[in-house]
Structure formats: structure tokens, C-alpha cells
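Format notes (please read before filing issues)

Several people have asked whether sequences and C-alpha cells are stored in separate files. They are not. Every record keeps both together, in the order shown below: the sequence lines, then the C-alpha cell lines. Line labels are part of the format and must not be stripped during preprocessing.
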Amino acid sequence: MNALSVTGGALRYEFLMQIRRRSLWVVLVIVSVLGFSLWVSLLSAHPVSSPHVISTPQETAHDLVLYLAQFAAWFLPLGAGLVVADRLARDKKLHVDEILDTFPGGLFARLLGKYLGSTLATLVPVLLIYLLGVGYVLAKFHDPQSLLLALEAFAAILLPGIVFAAGFSIALPVLLKVPLYQILFIGYWFWANLMSPRFPIPSPVATMLNATGPWAQEAFFHFQWVFLILHPTIWQGVESIALLVGLGGLSVFAAWLYLRWEQAHR
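Then the structure lines:
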């Protein structure tokens, strides 16, 4: 059995397992309420009809879509990280990992399939929730270009953060109990990504380690991320995406190294 077929089989299994979990949908709906609340409060504070805020319907639709992507990137990757955190721990608790070790196929292929399958399944409700907001913009402004912009913003701003969060949430519970990791992850998320630089606490919020996409948002869409003014180039936007995706993948690779070491010392 080659590595590709093992990865594909693990991907299908994890996708079906994850997509059927009620907690996946419940958690993502809860965290999305936070993002949508901010978005709706923004609409209430700056009504579309105000000539002092926006001059044309096209600009209005453009801004609403990018605000939607921004607020979604604040909270939906957090929810994604929380719901995939128990994937490896569950296998160990049920001793499924010991059974799988007797099957042909490498550990890394199974781990990669688990990561890809659970992440893809988590993206299904994320995308549906996101498209609800996009549907509101389309219904209000009848601007088909808003859909294309929304998909571009999803790929550049929201998706890298989800890949990053899912990678770490698959890997770190190898070392930590899942509830402890989830508590620490929530604290990390707000400290590293949403803390204002005005607070006298060191934080990577203004660096490319910010997983909510400020560099890509300003580089590709010329749209400022709340309290950060970065003036990034297109290449810096690309670098920020590559860094987040790369760190997500690297964390899974590190988990594989640890599990292989643990397997050898049983």
C-alpha cells in the first residue's frame, strides 16, 4: 500500500468523521456570532446611506465584503483550531493508533491524511457561514463582483489562518491534554492576533505571525486591518500566507517526529 493511497484513505475517513460531528457545527456557529456581531454593529454605526462613509454602492459592497472577511478571520480559525484539537487524542484514548500501527502504510501518511481530512471538513461549515454574509451583500447591492472578491478574500485572508490553526491543533495535543490545550489556544489567539499594540505587553500581533491576515489584507486589497498600518508590498502579502501555511504544515511534521520517537520507545 503506497503512501498516497494511505493518505487518501485517512483523508476520506477523517473528513466523514469530522463533518458528522455536532460539536463542529455548534462551536463554529458560536464563534461566528462574535464576528457577525461586529460586522452588524459596523453596519449600524455606519449606515450605507451615509455619504460621509462611502461614496458609491460599488465601494460599499467592496468594503462590506472585506470587513466580513476580516471579522471572520478573527474568530473562525479559532473555532477551527478548537474542533480539530482532539483528533489525535481520540485515537490514543480509544487505542485506535495501536491498531493502525499494525496496518501497512506509514505513520506520516496517516497523520497527513488526518490533518487534511479534518481541516477540509472544518472548512465546510466555515465556508457556509461565510457565504451567508456574502449572500447578504449580494442581495443588498446586486453586485456579482462581490462574490469574486469574497472568494479571493477568503483564500488570502481567512484560509491561511485556518490552515495554521488546524496544524497546531493537530500537533500540540500530542504533548498536552486537549482541554488544557484548548484553554491555552484561546488565550494565545487573542494575545498573538487581536491585542492592540497600545497595550504594554509584547505580542506578535504586528508581525507576519498574526494569523488573522492583516498583511495579505492590506497587500492584496489595500484595506487596512483595524489598528495596524503596515504598507506591505505584494510579496510581503505572499510571504505572510506562505509563513502561516508553512508553520501549519511544519507543526504536523514535528508531531510526526515525536510520534515516531514515541512509537520506537514503547
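For reference, the curators noted about this record: Residues 58 and 143 are 7 Å apart (CA to CA). The chain has a mean pLDDT of 84.
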